Structures are given as structure tokens and as C-alpha cells.
């Protein structure tokens, strides 16, 4: 019997499900998204009462925004470095969808990755919520929109900063490039860039 392309793809998906490396990659996506959410959203906490009173002071606000941006960026760089060789270190459904559309991953892997990412993010947020005293919660990374912005404008900002991150991710996949530096650092810096740009207008969910 001649093997059809559909049958060939189906067999490939079945092989993925039986593969140890496939499930290892899915576990990595769960763990890294959990850690990313836990560490990144944890940077929003306000531990001292004076921090809460002074947060609207311009200098304090800049320090607060810088701390958050650097935390998210460094967390991204660290986790990409840790698991990039195992799962590709997507850490984000936006990256996984882009990889699916460009046929860098198959449908099965994309579904399992996104499920693991969402589950990891929820678990990380739950752990952070449970370990943080109520008085120190602050915003805990909850996405909110500036009062002077419309939802459409906020969506546009989110779209652009997410595009920059995905664009950077794909730039590091180009096999023709010979000028590569640190892949993990460049991706982390793209996240920091988005946080610094949009922190005032949209309390960011770029990679949450």
C-alpha cells in the first residue's frame, strides 16, 4: 500500500507521542513558564509601606519600572539558556503559534506546548499568590490599561511589543547568520525593551 502524505504525518505524530524527548520538551515548557511567571510577577510586589506611599513619585516609579523590566528580561534570558536546546524555549503561546504558522513545529507539539505554558503560568501565579503576604501583593503583574488609553490602543501596544519579541526569536533561528552573539540574551533584551516601552501605558502581559 502506498503511504499517503496524510498517513505519513499521522505516523509522525504518533511517533512524537511515544518519544521521550517530546514529553521532556513539554515538561520544560511547563516548568520554565511557571518559573517565568513566578519570578517576573514577583517583581511587582511592594514589601514596605513606604514603597506603596512613594510609588507615584517620579523617581521611585522609574526605579520600580526598571526593576520589573530587568527582572522579566533576565528571567527570559536565563530560562532560554537553560532549556533552549531541549524544547526551543518558547515560553509563550505567541511564539508557539508563530512557530506553527511557519511550520517549525507540528500541530501536536504546538497544542501540547500551549497547554503546558498556560498550565505553568497558572501554577506559577498560584504559587506566588500563596507565598506572598497580602500586604505585599501590589499588582502582582495583573494586566491593566492606563485610564487614558482605549482597549484598542492597549491591544495595539501589546501586539507591537509581542511582535518585537517574536521577531527577535526568529532572527536567532536564521541558519544563514554567522554573526550570532548570545541568543538567550538578545531574546531577554527584547522582553526588557517591551517592558520599558509599554510599562506606563499598559501593565504588560507581553510574555505572561
From TrEMBL:
| PROSITE patterns per the UniProt record, alphabetical | MIP
Q: Which Gene Ontology cellular component terms are annotated? A: plasma membrane
Report what the protein is called: Aquaporin-4-like
Record's bilayer topology term: Multi-pass membrane protein
Which keywords are on file for this protein?
Cell membrane, Membrane, Transmembrane, Transmembrane helix, Transport
The top of its lineage is: Eukaryota, Metazoa, Spiralia, Lophotrochozoa, Mollusca
Species in which this protein is naturally found? Octopus vulgaris
The keyword Transport is annotated on this UniProt entry: yes
Question: Could you give a GO molecular-function term held by this entry?
Answer: water channel activity
Amino acid at each position: 500500500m502506498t503511504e499517503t502524505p496524510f498517513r505519513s504525518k499521522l505516523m509522525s505524530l504518533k511517533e512524537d507521542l511515544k518519544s521521550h524527548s517530546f514529553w521532556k520538551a513539554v515538561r520544560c515548557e511547563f516548568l520554565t513558564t511557571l518559573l517565568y511567571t513566578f519570578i517576573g510577577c514577583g517583581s511587582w510586589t511592594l514589601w514596605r509601606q513606604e514603597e506603596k506611599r512613594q510609588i507615584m513619585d517620579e523617581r521611585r516609579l522609574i526605579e520600580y519600572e526598571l526593576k520589573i523590566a530587568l527582572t522579566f528580561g533576565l528571567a527570559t534570558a536565563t530560562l532560554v539558556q537553560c532549556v533552549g536546546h531541549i524544547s526551543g524555549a518558547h515560553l509563550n503561546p505567541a511564539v508557539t503559534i508563530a512557530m506553527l504558522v511557519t511550520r517549525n513545529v507540528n500541530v501536536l507539539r504546538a497544542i501540547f506546548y500551549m497547554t503546558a505554558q498556560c498550565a505553568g503560568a497558572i501554577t506559577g501565579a498560584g504559587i506566588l499568590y500563596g507565598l506572598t503576604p497580602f500586604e505585599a501583593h501590589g499588582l502582582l503583574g495583573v494586566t491593566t490599561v492606563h485610564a487614558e488609553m482605549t482597549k484598542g490602543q492597549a491591544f495595539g501596544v501589546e501586539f507591537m511589543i509581542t511582535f518585537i519579541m517574536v521577531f527577535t526569536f526568529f532572527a536567532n533561528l536564521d541558519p544563514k547568520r554567522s554573526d550570532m552573539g548570545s541568543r538567550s540574551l538578545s531574546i531577554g533584551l527584547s522582553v526588557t525593551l517591551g517592558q520599558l516601552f509599554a510599562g506606563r501605558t499598559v501593565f504588560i502581559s507581553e510574555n505572561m
